Amino acid sequence: SDLPEHEQLMNIEAGYRYTGQKLFANANLYYMDYTNQLVLTGQINDVGGYTRTNVDDSYRAGVELEFGYQPVKQLSISGNLTLSQNKVVAFNEYVDNYDVGGQDTLVHSDTDLSFSPNIISALGVVYEPLKGLEIGLFGKYVGEQFLDNTSSETRKIDAYFTSNLQLNYTLKDVFFKEISIGVQVNNLFNALYVNNGYTWGYIYGGERTVENFYYAQAGRNIMTRLTFKL
Fold this sequence. Notes:
75% strand, 14 strands, mainly beta, twelve-stranded mixed beta sheet, 230 residues
């Protein structure tokens, strides 16, 4: 196969930051204009590695927001939100055509870059009801994304939301300088979701066949830890 060409990137950003006694907030606007961006094709090679290809003209543009708020000493709230557009101006898709023994070229325009959700957000709350005991609840939302650069609804990863619960209790100057006991419940609400995958397709008998393969993520699971500080 042909060697990839080098990428060229022009990046423009502007941001604002506020820091107060109880609140901090950051906002950032960005525009990234690419020439020959090396993007994932959505396919894997014969050893399972993801393949990439150059696209002539593409861009990523969006806004990033972040905040943290501590109304009282025992409670802190934080979150972030990214809204973006990630586009290929023009993209040629090559599909194996077993009917003719070659490849068909399908031309696409203004499609979404693969594995590039337009929305990513997170929110976390940490509360300390007792001295040394922290309870944290964290949620993350990732919008829909596509397995390749065609924006095809038949090659898509659905949006998903996951949440984690963290409990941490710390004892000081009891046998050791510090003892910390932690429990983390991942995927608290046992969501069924996938966050990655790959796709493959071909034409045979005059019909387009699409085969998608997804990596299912674990349901609810628990991790514990015990640490000592001398």
